[in-house]
Amino acid sequence: MIDERHKSALVEILGENGVIMDRAAMAAYEIGARHDHGHAALVLRPGTTAEMSACVAYCVRQRIALVPQSGNTGLVSGSTPDASGSQIVLSLDRMTRRFDLDIDNRSLRVDTGILLSEVNARLEPSGLFFPVDLGADPRLGGMLATNTGGTRFLRYGDVRKNTLGVKVVLADETGTVVDLMSGLRKNNTGVDWKQLFVGTAGAFGIVTECELNLERLPKQVATTYLVPSGSVAVMPLLRTIEERLGSYLSAFEGMSKNAIGAALAHVASLRNPFQNGQIPDYVILAEISRSWAPRDGEQPIDAVLESVLADILQGDDALLADAFVGPAHEMWALRHALSEGVKHAGRLVAFDLSFRRADVLAFCEWMKAELPRQFAGVDIFDFGHIGDGGVHFNLVASDASQVDAAFEQRLRDWVYSVAVDRFGGSFSAEHGVGRGSSNANPMSPVRCSTACRNPWRRRSGRLSGTLRCISSG
After folding, report:
1. Spatial distance between the Cα atoms of 414 and 277, rounded to a whole number of angstroms
2. Taking the mean position of all CA atoms in its chain, how far away is CA 434?
3. Distance between CA atoms of 194 and 181, rounded to whole angstroms?
4. Rounded Cα gap, residues 222 and 440, in angstroms
5. Cα dist from 413 to 347, 371, 381, 440, 460, whole Å
6. 344-353 as b/e, with b when 16 or more CB fall inside 10 Å?
7. pLDDT tens digit string along 408-427?
8. What is the C-alpha separation between 352 and 350, in angstroms, rounded?
């Protein structure tokens, strides 16, 4: 517990509005997106970099554990406190004042507490957007901490690629502020230090401001559902579409039958688009786009897509069993509903994995054969970003009582071992690191240790250990 002396000191730094001590008000900060929850000593809500620095400095000097928290949309238990009641949640939700658009540089300087949806809503009149597209609505700080990729990684890249600068508060006794906000796209004068703070889960510091690369909003979009003739046809199909459509291709998302069925069962507003309601074993959502408005004499983008699909369907290599073009908003609605649908299918144990592109389906096919032998009663509900090698590998047990802490630990260790050691993949593609994604016991806390000088350690080729500051999410 945090004694009254510390509470008074923190109120003096932030004022009454910057500190939450009421148990009911703290609940929103204690419960995560996947129902992980803990018990916070209190919640700190700095509104400026200077206030963040003062908070961090005080807590480090007093050896008080901090849990940096962004939008709390993370799926790996990285943004919630443990059950001890001794940790303070350090929220970014008041870090929302700065929003400086530079049209000529096509960049945005912004505080990291702003929601992604607000960023793009405010950018829309300028014809620009931040191109990391997600099903959730996180704050920028968590996106930077986890280096999110999203559904259009294939065209625009991840947060790391689109970050031009950061301002960071280090976890030291003075709350050192490091200003790396140059906004330059080209700078080879030395180490690119800003990348130390992108995708490292808050281990090296808390990003309070950032400068982001922006892209032109697409003015023409065409989408399609593709039903490959089999899993072995997926990569040849992707190569063919990339060859024919080039930089037009913005998404190539894979969705399994189980995942689609769960979304359709849970979200009543979704329409089943498949013939006779029969969901194929595997479906790919592909999207192409142009950043300019239609031009006279230019072939419409829908016609471009349909022409390419017609050629593939009539080809000798039989890559496609079926394909159809439809309204983008309806097709993406199904894709974005997958996570919520799977969460309600049963007791969920979720993994965020990445592989070399050709190994995504190879891993999933291997698991379909081997999982029933190792863990009976557990089914696969996978979907993901085939175009960039990512897969949300969700395992669901219809009997929740089957999955106790020991069972989940065995299951996680086995999946991580197969993914990393057998297929050479990563156990965290874009969700960051937390109690629910490391090969440490998912039921035990990942504690902040200001005494830690080497926050990572290796074990069997996988990263695990203690973070110097608990990860943002």
Report:
1. 35
2. 13
3. 9
4. 43
5. 18, 13, 19, 9, 11
6. ebbbbbbbbb
7. 999 999 999 999 999 999 98
8. 7
For residue 284, give both structure tokens. 């790919």
Residues 302-336 pLDDT 10s: 999 999 999 999 877 889 999 988 899 999 999 99
Q: What is the DSSP string of 294-331?
A: --TTPPPHHHHHHHHHHHHHTSTT--EEEEEEE-HHHH
Asked if 462 contacts 416 with a C-beta cutoff of 8 angstroms, the reply is yes
Structure token digits, residue 412: 């996680």
Find out whether 412 and 374 touch, Cβ atoms under 8 Å: no
Query: Which residue blocks in 317-392 are alpha helix, DSSP H?
Result: 328-343, 357-374
Locus of tokens 């096509």? 106
Give the residue carrying structure tokens 């979009």. Answer: 221
| Cα-to-chain-centroid distance, residue 66 | 22
Give 472: exposed, middle or buried? Use CB within 10 Å, 0-12, 13-18, 19+.
Answer: buried
Question: What are the structure tokens assigned to 244, written together?
Answer: 């024919």
pLDDT at 160 > cutoff 80: yes
What is the structure's pLDDT at 74?
62
At 176, list the tokens: 């050192």
Tell me whether strands 206-213 and 107-111 are parallel, antiparallel or unpaired.
Answer: antiparallel
pLDDT of residue 432: 62
In this structure, are residues 225 and 354 in contact, taking their beta carbons and an 8 Å threshold?
no
pLDDT > 90: what percent of the chain? 67
Please identify which residue in the block is written with the tokens 């000593």: 41
Per-residue CA distances from 460 to 273, 416, 429, 439, 457 (Å): 44, 10, 18, 10, 10
344 vs 14: CA distance, rounded Å: 40
Beta strands in 157-205 (DSSP E): 163-169, 177-180
- Give residue for tokens 């190539």: 252
Would residue 239 be called left, alpha or beta, if left means φ above 0 and alpha means ψ between -120 and 50 degrees? alpha
109 - beta bridge partners? Answer: 100, 211
Rg (CA), the chain: 23
Question: Residues, the chain, total?
Answer: 473
How much is the pLDDT for 35? 63
What's residue 73's pLDDT? 67
